[in-house]
Design brief:
The complex is a heterotrimer. By secondary structure, chain A is of the alpha/beta class. Chain A contains 11 helices and 10 strands. Chain B has one domain. Chain B is built from 21 helices and no strands. In chain B, helix 6 packs across helix 7. Chain C folds into 2 domains: 68 residues; 81 residues, no CATH class. Helix content of chain C is 69%, strand content 0%. The chains are: A alpha/beta, B mainly alpha, C mainly alpha. At the A-B interface, helix 3, strand 6 and helix 7 of A face helix 17 and helix 19 of B.
């Protein structure tokens, strides 16, 4: 409660909490491009909590600004860049997809890329026993294309559809012909899988692991470059026959355009120092996040690479 | 089921939950008494608070308290000043107000409180029994069935709407669906629609903003336009609340009415589209028709049965309308549409999976209904005379506050002025629609169902198992629901013809008697 | 004449115009659809097209349908009367309504919406409540000023500490100064 008061009061009076680590940044104002309770909101608030709790950052404040799938906040950050050197905006993979679709008048490269902090891999799941390998699924599809419907939690042409298409293409099926049924939440999509409405579900690894643990689904493959410790038996998609598939749904932080290198490096150092703290571990474990740390230039090249891959796929699928 | 009930109990019986349900009941009763501000408006204003609480089961428990409080507050103003806050308590004023005028205001309030409590509690018991089996059936549903059930809900809105004005209800449902299609709310709107490049509109109209704009803002506008609105419309005398007791004979007369009307009300409430208003009117009409002749004469002049029936039925129906909302994620009434918005804002997706995935929330809501009813009875009842005094808040302070709360509520969703502009525009449009006597609740139903209908229709059409619309006849459950929808569409026509024939027969027999 | 120009019909005509515009834009959407989605059975414009046409039909019916409701059972008549009473204003002549107050209040709401972020929550709300009461004819200055100061403070504290949301309480310039 005291800590909550302190964080809240930071908007009025700068306070400093008892520092257990060296303080690297005085204060950070987190701009959250979506409403309270969403994934972006949780990421920003969790990161802020860990940074201030560990004493790396003096105080953190948060501001929700939803609208335009994040476009309003990006516009705000760009238009008021001069007064925004204390602000970090959280964002994730959809910023790349939406920039490519041209629904934003902006692109992620207009911003100062601070660091990617956490992420999730994609996964294809089926009901237990309906297909044991990715090869089985592709064979069933090739034999009768109308027997397979793929579901996902994103709109057609969105992230889950792209992940599914990426895997199916690489495994030798024509992804433009695979019927894709969008669902608006993971629970609904799972119910559709169980009722037989869809045969395969494209989802995130975090969600898939929880469902597999409950015995509700089998995971066919995941889009990481190596097997993950939580599920050592599950093959990567590349191993399962979808060559070269690698996809991370990342979350990370951006600064205003033209942010000074000193400031940007201070933020990067603060985030890098955060991973070793127990405060971060508590937040991470509570949310089940996977650490995928991509600071500075790594983040820039990672994003450019992802934009290239997604852009090519979207063009070849006819999504653009 | 027992596990579930225990889970629900543990969610409801925490210090925080009890405090919030008490607070909710008080806020609900107070605001619900202001004419025009009924359960829908009160819940709309309280959604941001609920979202702020964060824990969905606790938040819903508070909203349930608000809901029951508001329903009861509406009954109180119907009885005391003949100003029903909302349509569902109109029937309460038929006999409640005459009873109060005769000097039995206290007794009328007691009857209303007991009937509401009994109706709500019996409704909650029926809901407890029905929820699990219904959710199990609903687990078999695929997109075509959802689509068909939604079509049933929409036709029901028209079929049970005001007579002779069904086409207005249909137009309002379409209007709501059109509003929903703005932006990219639907899964099949993979590009923003109808935003004309205006970025803040891309997410579409937020449902909280819509509800504020449709319900809270226009009511404030009406209060501005008409300074006399919501003031005493009767003889101008304030009703002394004196003796609140009822005697054993009166209790005995109430019991069978409560028994019949709670079951009837619940069943009517379960049907999508037919909510508390229909249930209270049907309950009133039924009790009048079956009452012995001497008792029938009393109806409209302060009849005990005439007050018990609508109060029991509307509370049972309110509870019944949770069935489609909790098991299918489909709102059957304006109020449950708003509660659905609250649930989704809290990150909960109601549907058949809810009972298994989030038993604490599912059972927490149901338990909170029992709880809300009890709290209402023991807490509000002695406080009624004092709460009623609060009705005297001058309009010069009340109106700015209603508008302020609406704007803060909409602003908290996104902290974006566009939400506020949207809310103001909707408020003005709704005011015009209400002046022309268009029903407003169908807009919310159209808005909430519109996006879901588009998603389910899209999935059904995309599914390679069917060719085009072949899911209609390839899936028997879909076919059955669509036939029900068709029957409902023709119901007003057939009923109108029957009513005409009845009247003719009655006239003929009168002629014969003469 | 008054029969012909009922409120139903005026609103019906307005809705008809809106539905026509909507239908035009719904059919206009097709040219923005990327190739993949053009061949899908459900397109971004499928439902809007249906809605637009259905809306036009329903508004035409509203315009040409008789404005008097069908006769029905007495309790329905009572319901209708009560609903009319709730929806309607308590006078026959629209000229008696406080249109000036309403327009002023809407203007105040628009100003509040526009300057809420820049002006900060507490001062903006102070002016909203104060001017809201003034517009409605309240002249008890002490009560007005007290309410307009206490309420925004209380709500801000509630929003910040109970709801855990951040709304900048003071004007942005002032906050920047305080932050140093």
């Amino acid at each position: 409660m005291l800590k909550k008061l302190a964080v809240g009061a930071a908007a009025l009076v700068a306070t400093s909490s008892a520092a257990s680590a060296e303080q690297l940044v005085d204060s950070i104002h987190f701009l959250i491009p979506g409403g309270a309770g969403g994934g972006w909101d949780g990421t920003a608030r969790g990161t802020g909590e860990a940074l201030t709790g560990a004493g790396i950052v003096g105080s953190a404040s948060f501001e929700n600004m939803s609208g335009g799938g994040g476009g309003v906040a990006i516009g705000h950050l760009i238009e008021n860049a001069d007064s925004m050197d204390g602000t970090l905006m959280v964002n994730s993979t959809p910023i790349v997809i939406r920039s490519l679709q041209g629904v934003f008048p902006y692109n992620f490269s207009d911003l100062t890329m601070i660091a990617g902090t956490i992420g999730d891999y994609g996964a294809l799941v089926v009901t237990p026993g309906s297909a044991t390998t990715l090869g089985d699924l592709v064979a069933a599809y090739t034999a009768d294309p109308s027997s397979i419907a793929m579901g996902g939690g994103s709109v057609p042409g969105g992230m889950d559809h792209l992940i599914g298409a990426m895997v199916m293409n690489a495994a030798g099926a024509d992804a433009t012909k695979v019927a894709y049924l969008p669902f608006d939440a993971g629970g609904v999509a799972l119910a559709a899988l169980l009722s037989g409405e869809i045969e395969v579900l494209s989802t995130g690894l975090g969600e898939a692991l929880a469902q597999a643990k409950a015995g509700e689904v089998d995971i066919l493959c995941i889009t990481s470059d190596a097997r993950v410790a939580d599920a050592p038996d599950v093959p990567t998609c590349a191993e399962a026959g979808a060559d070269g598939v690698y996809f991370v749904n990342w979350r990370g932080f951006f600064g205003a355009p033209g942010l000074s290198d000193d400031k940007a490096d201070a933020y990067r150092a603060a985030i890098a120092a955060m991973y070793a703290t127990p405060e971060w571990e508590a937040v991470r474990a509570r949310n089940g996040w996977v650490e995928i740390h991509n600071p500075g230039d790594d983040f820039v090249s990672f994003l450019e690479n992802q934009e290239q891959i997604i852009g090519d796929l979207m063009t070849s699928m006819g999504f653009l | 089921m027992l596990d579930g009930i225990l889970t629900g109990l543990s969610a409801a019986f925490t210090f925080q939950a009890i405090g919030l349900v008490v607070l909710g009941c008080l806020i609900g009763s107070f605001i619900g008494m202001v004419p025009g501000l009924g359960p829908m408006q009160v819940i709309a204003i309280m959604i941001p608070v609920a979202v702020g609480i964060g824990d969905p089961s606790v938040a819903m428990i508070m909203l349930a308290g608000v809901y029951y409080g508001a329903v009861f507050g509406g009954s109180t103003s119907s009885i005391l000043i003949n100003a029903p806050g909302v349509a569902s308590t109109v029937a309460t004023s038929f006999d409640g107000y005459p009873m109060a005028r005769k000097g039995f205001a206290g007794k009328a309030l007691t009857i209303a409180a007991i009937s509401s409590f009994a109706g709500g509690t019996i409704g909650a018991i029926l809901l407890t029994l029905a929820a699990k089996p219904l959710a199990d059936v609903a687990l078999l549903f695929q997109s075509p069935e959802y689509l068909a059930v939604m079509i049933v809900g929409m036709t029901a809105v028209a079929a049970f709407g005001e007579r002779g004005r069904a086409y207005k209800a249909v137009l309002m449902v379409i209007f709501g669906m059109i509003l929903a299609s703005i932006g990219e709310g639907s899964q099949f709107a993979n590009r923003p629609r109808f935003t004309f490049g205006y970025v803040p509109l891309q997410d579409g109209i937020s449902s909280i903003t819509l509800i504020m704009g449709l319900f809270a803002v226009p009511e404030a506008f009406f209060l501005i336009l008409d300074p006399k609105r919501g003031q005493y419309k009767g003889d101008g005398q304030s009703k002394e609340i004196n003796n609140m007791r009822i005697n054993a004979q009166e209790a005995k007369e109430m019991a069978p009415v409560i028994g019949r009307q709670s079951i009837l009300g619940f069943l009517i409430g379960v049907m999508p589209g037919a909510g508390a208003t229909i249930a209270s009117l049907m309950g009133y009409a039924m009790e009048r028709n079956i009452a012995p002749k001497a008792k029938r004469e009393e109806f409209g002049k302060g009849s005990l049965r005439g007050l018990t029936a609508p109060e029991t039925a509307n509370n049972a129906a309110s509870t019944g309308s949770f069935v489609p909302m909790l098991t299918l994620g489909i709102p059957g009434s304006g109020t449950t549409a708003i509660l659905l918005v609250a649930l989704i804002s809290l990150g909960v997706q109601p549907g058949p999976a809810l009972i298994n995935d989030n038993p604490d929330i599912f059972w927490g809501i149901i338990i909170s209904m029992y709880f809300g009813n009890v709290v209402l009875l023991i807490l509000n009842y002695p406080l009624i005379p004092y709460i009623a005094k609060l009705l005297a808040v001058p309009r010069t302070f009340l109106i700015p506050f209603v508008l302020f709360f609406s704007m803060v509520g909409a602003y908290l969703v996104s902290q974006n002025p566009t939400e506020l502009y949207t809310m103001i525009v909707l408020g003005v449009v709704t005011t015009l629609l209400r002046l022309a006597k268009f029903p407003i609740a169908p807009i919310v139903i159209g808005f909430i169902l519109g996006i879901r209908m588009e998603d389910n229709l899209g999935r059904a059409l995309t599914d390679p198992d069917y060719t085009g619309f072949s899911f209609i006849w390839e899936r028997p459950m879909t076919l059955v629901f669509l036939l029900i929808a068709a029957a409902m569409l023709f119901y007003p026509m057939i009923e109108g013809r029957l009513a005409r024939r009845d009247r003719k027969k009655a006239r003929d027999s009168q002629v014969n008697q003469d | 004449m008054s029969r012909l120009l009922s409120a139903d019909r005026i609103v019906g005509v307005i809705l008809l115009i809106l539905c026509c515009l909507f239908t035009y834009f719904a059919f206009d959407l097709a040219k923005t659809i990327p190739p993949f989605f053009k061949n899908q059975p459900m397109r971004v414009d499928t439902l809007p097209r249906i809605l637009g046409v259905a809306g036009i039909i329903a508004s035409v019916v509203t315009i040409i349908a008789p404005t008097t409701g069908a006769k029905s059972a007495p309790e329905h008549k009572q319901l209708k009367e009560s609903q009319d009473r709730m929806a309607d204003l308590s006078f026959a002549n629209f000229g008696q309504a406080k249109w000036g107050q309403l327009v002023a209040m809407i203007a105040l709401m628009i100003v509040y919406s526009t300057y809420l972020r820049a002006g900060g929550f507490i001062p903006s709300t102070f002016f909203l409540l104060l001017f809201g009461s003034i517009i409605l004819g309240e002249r008890r200055w002490v009560a007005m000023v007290l309410v307009s100061i206490i309420a925004p403070l209380a709500i801000w504290l509630l929003v910040t500490y109970v709801l855990d949301r951040t709304i900048p309480p003071l004007p942005r310039a002032l906050m920047d100064m305080m932050r140093g």
